[in-house]
């Protein structure tokens, strides 16, 4: 079926562009290293300016995007849109971008994909096509309910390669809101975006790619020929604006590169990633599984539970050494708790709510008695409960810092489409800790957290980066609080000595934070640990501690300056709730809370570890450390004796007492990733020795005494990792 809207869209575009009043072309000077060139404004783009310098400056050859006053741009150079506060005429193009910016490159590729989709699916109404963490996608609506199939990839790729080969230019135009609505009148999704995002009387930019037109702020590569390698990765369904109540869309994912070799390397790593996928390894090693009757909640089998408990035990051992107090808090709280903490207004959709039957009970949060049906929520985080725990006792400044650690079960009502193996679940546990400290202790506590992180990540061979996120535009707290918090975090980072990167304005609304990105064996970035300062929860819960100053020298309190918040009745709560800030008592101060996680979600960390290690667990973490393989039933008694002694030492040992051949027993053990295989026959039994095969050197066999073997196992436990404990005494 011939596309019914493209011809009309192109005709409308020609009319719009022909009616656009061209701006006066003012001269502008561009300074690039030693060269100064004069260009006409509004007509010239940064790319065209820099292209002329190719012969005299080899550094310019690979530049595709430029920065103008800090903004990545392919826009026309317009003095009216440039910051002129420096009061000079020269406009400098920042050449900081020496390489192609991946997000912009991938967004250009999304436009190529969109143009191909319009060719192949002729009734397709395109919606949005952003760059993502790895590649890009484009969503579209099919009025005929046409679904994408893998068989469509070939024809799509042919259309894409033709668009790339033709080297179509990305042409940017600025049009009015009314013109944009006219141009995209055939597409209700685009017009909805225009109505929402473009103010009345405002303008928006579009990009033209041959006969393809799309809303976009840009920038883009100069032409489609810059994309040398392109691949369609997968397809799926989606919802308009991510809302299941809206129209269902088709989504196509893609990847692209400036060099063919980059795509080949990407495909190699992708194949390796598929082999390492924690869902594949987890099934092969019988670690965990999922069931549709408990979506987003993992069933950990015996071997998976051993890994889970070993990680928790590792953290518990470190807590003993580092002065943490492990606590247990309830799984379920009255919803008023989330109103006090401030989470209810923006987070209630992520809470699992439970309504009780009508009965009389004490309303402990405010000391009132109520008699009606109440709503409770399963906790999605531990911090509000820890605040109640701190508040339950009067604390002196001498007691701080107080470090609460909690492995409590958490629940978050993630949408079903977001659930992905162990990486995105509804039921999980965290190595969650909250440090209540004085302001003068922040720097030292943060420094200790960073050292703690370094120790744990070092055990797994992770490389990791630190990102320091500062005050966002929307935040709570005073300028003085933020300035003090950020300066102390920065001093701690500088004292730690590891390079860090600034994420300006990306802090939490309640305080600045440090985010940790770890890199696995395939170089993939994963967010794990975090260290966050929080000045707001102590205010919300009215947390106070006594100071060394017993005199009341505080200024009179203007209660009109204290914050308050009212929650009206809704479907979960029949009564109005009002939170009010309480002033500090004489001789008291508020603690600062440091939110600290290293593993983060234990479930997600196991997923990351599984793929990082490819299921080859180090001995101290392995659920299958040793397997005893008697050559035949004749040597089973000796094998059982060895098994019992290793078991008594606390090691994870199994015995293969089947009638299988020894070669099959060894092969099965290798597939199950046992760290050690003990082969026992006549020679081993008569000499009371063990024939030992290591996973890392399967062709070599070492003959040792059992006692020496036990010592070798113990020697492989890294410093700081607790050794296996004897389960029982063999002499009993």
Automatic annotation (TrEMBL):
Can you state which reaction this protein catalyses? Answer: tRNA(Thr) + L-threonine + ATP = L-threonyl-tRNA(Thr) + AMP + diphosphate + H(+)
Transmembrane stretches in the record are: none
Instruction: Establish whether keyword Nucleotide-binding is in the entry.
Output: yes
Q: Where is the signal peptide?
A: none
| Cellular component annotations (GO), alphabetically ordered | mitochondrion
- EC supergroup of this enzyme: ligase
A single GO molecular function term of this UniProt record: ATP binding
A biological-process GO annotation: threonyl-tRNA aminoacylation
User: Looking at the keywords, is Aminoacyl-tRNA synthetase present?
Assistant: yes
Instruction: Please indicate which superkingdom the organism of origin belongs to.
Output: Eukaryota
User: What Enzyme Commission number(s) does the record list for this chain?
Assistant: 6.1.1.3
Aminoacyl-transfer RNA synthetases class-II family profile domain residues: 304-618
Q: Which InterPro entries match?
A: aa-tRNA-synt_IIb, aa-tRNA-synth_II, aa-tRNA-synth_II/BPL/LPL, Anticodon-bd, Anticodon-bd_dom_sf, Thr-tRNA-ligase_IIa, Thr/Ala-tRNA-synth_IIc_edit, ThrRS_anticodon
Q: HAMAP family given for it?
A: Thr_tRNA_synth
This one is known as threonine--tRNA ligase
**Organism, scientific name:** Halteria grandinella
């Amino acid at each position: 079926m011939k596309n019914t809207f493209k011809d009309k869209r192109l005709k409308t575009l020609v009319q719009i562009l022909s009616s656009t009043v061209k701006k006066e072309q003012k001269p502008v000077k561009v300074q690039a290293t030693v060269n100064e060139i004069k260009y006409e404004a509004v007509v010239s783009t940064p790319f065209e300016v820099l292209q002329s310098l190719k012969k005299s400056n080899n550094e310019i050859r690979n530049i595709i995007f430029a920065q103008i006053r800090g903004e990545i741009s392919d826009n026309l150079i317009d003095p009216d849109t440039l910051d002129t506060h420096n009061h000079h005429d020269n406009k400098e193009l920042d050449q900081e971008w020496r390489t192609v910016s991946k997000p912009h490159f991938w967004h250009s590729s999304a436009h190529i994909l969109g143009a191909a989709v319009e060719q192949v699916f002729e009734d397709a109404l395109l919606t949005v096509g952003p760059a993502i963490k790895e590649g890009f996608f484009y969503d579209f609506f099919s009025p005929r309910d046409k679904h994408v199939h893998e068989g469509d990839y070939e024809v799509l790729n042919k259309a894409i390669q033709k668009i790339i080969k033709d080297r179509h230019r990305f042409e940017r135009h600025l049009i009015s809101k009314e013109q944009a609505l006219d141009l995209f009148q055939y597409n209700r999704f685009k017009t909805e975006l225009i109505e929402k995002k473009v103010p009345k009387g405002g303008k928006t930019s579009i990009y033209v790619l041959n006969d393809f037109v799309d809303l976009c702020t840009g920038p883009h590569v100069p032409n489609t020929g810059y994309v040398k390698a392109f691949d369609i990765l997968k397809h799926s369904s989606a919802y308009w604006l991510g809302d299941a109540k809206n129209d269902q869309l088709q989504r196509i994912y893609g990847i692209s590169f400036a060099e063919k070799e980059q795509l080949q390397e990407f495909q190699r790593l992708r194949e390796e990633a598929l082999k390492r996928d924690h869902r594949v390894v987890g099934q092969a090693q019988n670690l965990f599984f999922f069931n549709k009757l408990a979506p987003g909640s993992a069933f950990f089998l015996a071997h998976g539970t051993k890994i889970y408990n070993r990680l928790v035990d590792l953290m518990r051992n470190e807590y003993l050494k580092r002065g943490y107090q492990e606590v247990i808090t309830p799984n379920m709280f009255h919803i008023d708790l989330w109103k006090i903490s401030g989470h209810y207004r923006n987070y209630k959709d992520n809470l699992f709510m439970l309504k009780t039957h009508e009965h009389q009970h004490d309303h402990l949060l405010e000391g009132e008695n109520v008699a009606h049906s109440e709503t409770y929520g399963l906790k999605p985080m531990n911090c509000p409960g820890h605040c109640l725990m701190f508040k339950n006792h009067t604390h002196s400044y001498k007691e701080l810092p107080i470090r609460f650690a909690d492995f409590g079960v958490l629940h978050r009502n993630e949408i079903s489409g977001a659930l992905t193996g162990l990486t995105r679940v509804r039921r999980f546990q965290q190595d969650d800790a909250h440090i209540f400290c004085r302001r003068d202790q922040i720097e030292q506590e943060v420094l200790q957290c960073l050292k703690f992180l370094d120790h744990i990540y070092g055990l797994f061979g992770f490389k990791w980066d630190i990102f320091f996120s500062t005050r966002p535009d929307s935040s709570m707290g005073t300028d003085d609080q933020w300035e003090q918090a950020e300066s102390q975090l920065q001093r701690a980072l500088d004292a730690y000595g590891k390079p860090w990167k600034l994420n300006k304005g990306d802090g939490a609304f309640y305080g600045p934070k440090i985010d940790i990105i770890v890199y696995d064996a395939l170089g993939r970035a994963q967010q794990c640990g975090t260290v966050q300062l929080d000045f707001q929860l102590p205010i919300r819960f009215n947390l106070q501690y006594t100071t060394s100053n017993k005199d009341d020298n505080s200024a009179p309190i203007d209660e009109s300056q204290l914050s308050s918040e009212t929650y009206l009745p809704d479907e979960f709560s029949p009564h109005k709730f009002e939170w009010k800030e309480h002033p500090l008592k004489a001789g008291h101060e508020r603690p600062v809370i440091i939110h600290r996680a290293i593993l983060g979600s234990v479930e997600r960390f196991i997923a990351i570890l599984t793929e990082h290690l490819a299921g080859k667990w180090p001995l101290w973490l392995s659920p299958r450390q040793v397997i005893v393989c008697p050559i035949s039933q004749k040597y089973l008694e000796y094998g059982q004796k060895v098994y019992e002694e290793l078991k008594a030492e606390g090691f994870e040992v199994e015995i293969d007492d089947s009638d299988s051949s020894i070669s099959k027993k060894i092969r099965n053990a290798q597939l199950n990733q046992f760290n050690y295989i003990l082969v026992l026959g006549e020679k081993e039994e008569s000499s009371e020795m063990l024939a030992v095969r290591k996973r890392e050197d399967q062709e070599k066999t070492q003959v040792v005494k059992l006692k020496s073997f036990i010592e070798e196992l113990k020697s492989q436990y890294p410093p700081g990792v607790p050794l296996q404990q004897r389960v029982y005494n063999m002499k009993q």
